[in-house]
Write a structure and sequence with these properties.
By secondary structure, the chain is an all-alpha fold. It has two domains: about 1-220, no CATH class; about 220-355, no CATH class. It is built from 13 helices and four strands. Belongs to the ERG4/ERG24 family.
């Protein structure tokens, strides 16, 4: 039973391999509507898991196999990174990543020499960036929820239900808007080395599920008013996160779109414009603010007696502050005086009146 459940976790996220294309390869591109291959992949995964559960698949047994599965995923990430490092010596210099071509083998292995490793039209980095990790995360959460329901002889706790629902919404949103990842630093600048391979295949599914892992072994009673307040916090975070990202993506695709045409902008020497109103007039990185609020919301159902469920939140604070520093540096280099003017007009980076 445990082996069958492990096979589900290992195999289901890969069923959409042929559908993962990089920029310009059978995709709608930034200017068109989303083609939703990642979301369809999630839907097919949910269908197959549902059929498996109906047929008696003991998915809850995954909760007892997380350590060996994480170890196997780490070994897989290492050998995949080694293969990609060796493969990078067969591609032209134009295919190498700006930061992973230092000449130091250890550094380049870690960061990745090749920017977007491809096999025909299949873009391995684009595929790994979201699908295996996010769907693995959702499957692990489901397994933990089912195991808790078994222990309670029927239904999972309200705390476990909220954590699983909040995080599934996050996964579904990321896969619905999968093409937005094409504009991220990971895709544009970073090579595909051990750092990203480990993050995609190990860190996301096994560390991001820490709240559900905690709740399985430390059940928490949650009153309805408290649960309602946590849900409200989650909604606020999601509205900021999705509103900011959608506003940015719409403006990039079509500045004349009625939803963004009235927003104030700053012209730049590159010919592009910087939004200085709407969500992007609140702080310089409102999407990061929404992300952090959501991270806090799905930690709070675990109570406040242990630090472990809040590891993700504190880790995310460090990650996003570092990413914001990289963003700011690159935007200053790219936009120059226009970026300085934007920083003067919008002085706060992530949290209004605080940072």
């Amino acid at each position: 039973g445990g082996a069958a459940a492990a096979a589900v976790l290992a195999g289901l996220p890969g069923h959409a391999l042929p559908a993962a294309h990089g920029p310009g390869e059978g995709r709608t591109g930034e200017g068109g509507p989303p083609s939703l291959p990642g979301f369809r992949c999630l839907g097919l995964t949910a269908l197959l898991v549902g059929l498996g559960l109906a047929g008696g698949l003991p998915l809850g047994n995954l909760s007892e196999m997380l350590l060996p599965l994480a170890s196997a995923a780490t070994v897989t990430a290492f050998f995949l990174s080694l293969f990609l490092y060796l493969k990078s010596f067969t591609v032209p210099p134009s295919a190498l990543a700006p930061g992973g071509n230092s000449g130091n083998p250890v550094y380049d292995f870690f960061l990745g020499r090749e920017l977007n490793p491809r096999f025909g039209s299949f873009d391995l980095k684009y595929f790994c960036e979201l699908r295996p990790g996010l769907m693995g995360w959702a499957l692990i959460n489901l397994a933990l929820l089912l195991r808790e329901a078994e222990r309670q002889r029927g239904w999972p706790s309200l705390a476990m239900g909220l954590v699983s629902a909040f995080q599934f919404i996050y996964v579904a949103d990321a896969l619905w808007y999968e093409e937005a990842v094409l504009t991220t630093i990971d895709i544009i600048h970073d090579g595909f080395g051990f750092m990203l391979a480990f993050g995609d295949l190990v860190w996301v599914p096994f560390i991001y599920s820490l709240q559900a892992q905690f709740l399985l072994n430390h059940p928490q009673a949650l009153d309805l008013p408290v649960a309602g307040a946590i849900c409200l916090l989650k909604v606020i975070g999601y509205v900021i996160f999705r509103g900011a990202n959608s506003q940015k993506n719409t403006f990039r695709r079509n500045p004349s779109d009625p939803s963004v045409a009235g927003l104030e902008t700053i012209p730049t020497a590159t010919g592009r414009h910087l939004l200085v109103s709407g969500w992007w007039g609140l702080v310089r990185h409102p999407n990061y603010l929404g992300d952090l609020i959501m991270a806090l919301a799905w930690s709070l159902p675990c109570g406040v007696t242990h630090l472990l469920p809040y590891f993700y939140f504190f880790y995310f604070v460090i990650l996003l502050v570092h990413r914001e520093y990289r963003d700011e540096r690159q935007c200053l280099q790219k936009y120059g005086l226009a970026w300085r003017e934007y920083c003067r007009r919008v002085p706060y980076r992530i949290v209004p009146y605080i940072y």
